[in-house]
Design goal:
The chain has about 200 residues and is of the alpha/beta class. The protein contains six helices and eleven strands. The chain has one domain: 3-Layer(aba) Sandwich (Rossmann fold). It is found in: Cytoplasm.
Length: about 200
Amino acid sequence: MDLCHVPAAREKGWYLALMAPNVKGPNYAWLDPSRLYCHPQGLQDCVTDLLQPFQGDPIDMVAGIDAMGFILGAAAAAVLRKGFLAIRKAGHLCVQTLAQPYTDYSGREKVMEVRTDAISPGLRILLVDQWVETGGTMRAAIQLVEQLGGPHPRVPVGIAAICIEDSEGGRWIRERYKCTHCIPPHLQPQFDRHQ
């Protein structure tokens, strides 16, 4: 798809056609959304769709998950006029951090961390990542935010991603948090099967 072309009828998810399939094999994600971010209207419409369910909800800060969640999260924070917090893979922050081990979508054991001085008790956080496949990465981010935010019913406010797959982890997240993603219901089964 032409990175300058904007369709006359922009239905929710039209920009999903900008994503490219994996051509490098099983060690990579099955789909690459990064070309979507290069398309000015595609990126704007994606962020608008992600934020629409949270209109009117009190959000104090947006947190994005390393690394591709930084793009959508920072864009969402700019639209909302809120601050942005980077939840990083371990070893990149030179300040005091809280760490959380997790297993990513490929089954690899990893650790993510967040600075301890950015979230005060009760702060309402919108967590953003590019994709929720197995849910391990997002669950670790939720645990970090909840540990720092204290026992408050609105931490986090919600979860936003281009796709939240219908996996065990995806269902766990959907059952407990307000969630939004960009996949139209009739296409969800194809994304769950990685087609």
